[in-house]
Design brief:
Blueprint lengths: L18 H12 L4 H14 L5 H27 L5 H10 L1 H7 L4 H5 L26 H23 L5 H30 L21 E4 L24 E4 L33 H21 L4
Parallel strand pairs: 1-2
Helix pairs in contact: 1-3, 1-7, 2-3, 2-7, 3-8, 4-5, 7-8
């Protein structure tokens, strides 16, 4: 259950309408790293968190705060769009006719689609989509993604901050900058807490006992004359396990080559026949392949032979 409080978390009072700036502010609403993304990312992570208590509560607290940040920017944009488009077009044309001709005064969708309000899109009108969010169920992996999301969000807020001289808008963005500064620390401290509580050693290392360990500590360079070996990532000891890092030339580690199988003849791929006929990708072929796979697994279970 969520409850709505009418008061905004922080004031959003532009000194004057500015539809041209509102078009830029759209990126902070529905862009890949906008407030809609972090809102949905944190809510999904929180709803699916399997550790009751401080972790789940923390994630949902910040997710709920981000709902309020979306509301703040939507309110700000409605106020920036007050009186648009005619007033803004006239002002822009008076200041710079060429600019007015190119931009048309404002994002036309603000007038045509929403009637002078924000949209769930980026600054180019591309709709926000769920593919922007990360919610894997692994808190270490998610927290690292959250640090990056907050860093990108803050960077874009800082760039937009330089695009206005409105003191009211700047005051709101100063608050947002501060929150993004804190939230980066929040997720980094969350990672420290995960380590302290024994949930991780600081690396995502699922199936660590299955990995080819010699490749887990090697930097491969594929650039002639590369100086990458001078960096900490290629020398000294590993962060976990205290093993020596290795800098090596990137060379083939196998004699396997990029040779794909003969194509399904029903797909009409260009093919010279040199590898023989392809396997038809029909229902009969799929059934045969499935039966062969089941027989292989049964044999492996009985004999322990994986060949």
């Amino acid at each position: 259950m969520y409850r709505h409080t009418k008061s905004l978390q922080f004031q959003v009072k532009p000194e004057r309408p500015d539809a041209l700036f509102a078009a830029k502010l759209q990126e902070l609403v529905g862009g890949q790293f906008g407030e809609m993304t972090v809102m949905m990312q944190y809510l999904w992570q929180g709803w699916n968190c399997r550790i009751p208590g401080k972790y789940k509560d923390m994630i949902l607290d910040i997710g709920t705060e981000e709902i309020g940040h979306v509301e703040m920017l939507v309110t700000m944009m409605a106020r920036l769009l007050e009186g648009a488009p005619s007033e803004t077009q006239a002002q822009a044309a008076a200041a710079n006719p060429a600019l007015a001709a190119v931009l048309g005064g404002q994002n036309v969708q603000h007038a045509i689609v929403t009637g002078g309000a924000a949209m769930p899109t980026n600054s180019q009108g591309v709709p926000w989509n769920g593919g922007y969010i990360v919610a894997s169920g692994n808190l270490l992996a998610d927290f690292r993604s959250n640090v990056a999301a907050e860093a990108q969000s803050r960077l874009q807020t800082a760039r937009v901050y330089n695009m206005t001289d409105d003191p009211g808008v700047k005051e709101t963005l100063q608050f947002n900058l501060a929150r993004d500064t804190y939230h980066q620390q929040q997720w980094l401290l969350g990672i420290e807490q995960l380590i302290e509580d024994g949930f991780t050693d600081g690396l995502e290392d699922s199936h660590k006992d299955e990995e080819k360990t010699e490749h887990a500590r090697t930097f491969y360079s594929f650039t002639e004359g590369s100086r990458a070996g001078e960096g900490r990532w290629a020398q000294g000891n590993t962060l976990i396990g205290n093993e020596e890092l290795v800098f090596a030339e990137g060379v083939p580690l196998t004699d396997d080559v990029n040779q794909v199988p003969p194509p399904d003849p029903l797909l009409f791929s260009t093919y010279d026949g040199s590898m023989g006929p392809g396997t038809p990708g029909n229902a009969g072929g799929a059934f045969k392949q499935g039966a062969e796979n089941l027989l292989h697994k049964a044999k492996e279970a009985l004999t322990g032979d994986d060949k």
